[in-house]
Specification:
Number of strands: 5
Order of helices and strands: EHEHHEHHEHHHHEH
Structural class: alpha/beta
Largest sheet: 5 strands, parallel
Strand content: 5-15%
Helix content: 40-55%
Number of helices: 10
Mean pLDDT: 92
Length: about 220
């Protein structure tokens, strides 16, 4: 039996961590052995901190592909949040890596995920511009979003476009979201899209659990 790999993706504030933790707890309660790995973990099982620290350097996409190819999980399932897109694709965009590197990274993922019983829960954020930033602030808090704005304003993506503050967030994350949308449409393994603008988290959680159950 193939190991079940559950990927959870979405923009900051869409509920990735909450959902990942809840799904892991649910599967554990069913007697399945498995773990949840946070995207920011220093010793992340795929995209660890030493690798993330090379994101500004040439060849980051190739190094991420190699990390996925080395990936050998344990247990009956594993929940991974943020490492499919957030600490890979987003970094490639914000550091101005060539488009062909983004495409090469996404193209290589198919062979990786065929090794497992893979599925993706994508917390889609349809808003643009100020609405995108406002929703992020509502979910993560103004202080966190101000820190994100400060960080984003210093990225090559923002600097080369003369963007600062919330305008930098809106532009970068809208483009990142659009790349995620296209990638998700091309995946040939099961994908559940959930509208992350919903205020009913329990309903979203229930929908994710029900969907996983239909996959067997």
């Amino acid at each position: 039996m193939l190991m079940r790999l559950i990927l959870i993706e979405g923009l900051p504030g869409t509920g990735k961590s909450s959902l990942a933790g809840d799904l892991c707890d649910h599967l554990n309660s069913l007697g399945l052995s498995g773990t949840w790995h946070r995207e920011e973990a220093i010793d992340h099982t795929v995209i660890d901190k030493p690798l993330r620290q090379t994101a500004s350097q040439p060849g980051y996409a190739a190094r991420c592909i190699e990390a996925w190819q080395r990936f050998t999980p344990d247990g009956e399932f594993m929940v991974l949040e943020g490492c499919l897109f957030q600490t890979t694709l987003r970094f490639l965009i914000e550091y101005g890596h060539p488009e062909e590197e983004l495409r090469a990274y996404l193209h290589a993922l198919g062979a990786v995920f065929n090794r497992f019983e893979s599925s993706l829960i994508y917390l889609h954020q349809p808003n643009d511009g100020a609405d995108l930033v406002n929703l992020m602030a509502d979910r993560k808090g103004a202080d966190i979003v101000n820190k994100i704005a400060q960080y984003t304003s210093q990225t090559p993506y923002a600097v080369t476009r003369g963007l600062t503050g919330y305008a930098a967030i809106a532009s970068l994350y809208s483009r990142y979201r659009d790349h995620c949308d296209l990638a998700v449409d091309d995946f040939d393994f099961p994908v559940l899209r959930l509208d992350s603008t919903s205020t009913d988290y329990l309903q979203m959680r229930a929908a994710a659990i029900k969907w996983l159950e239909t996959l067997g």
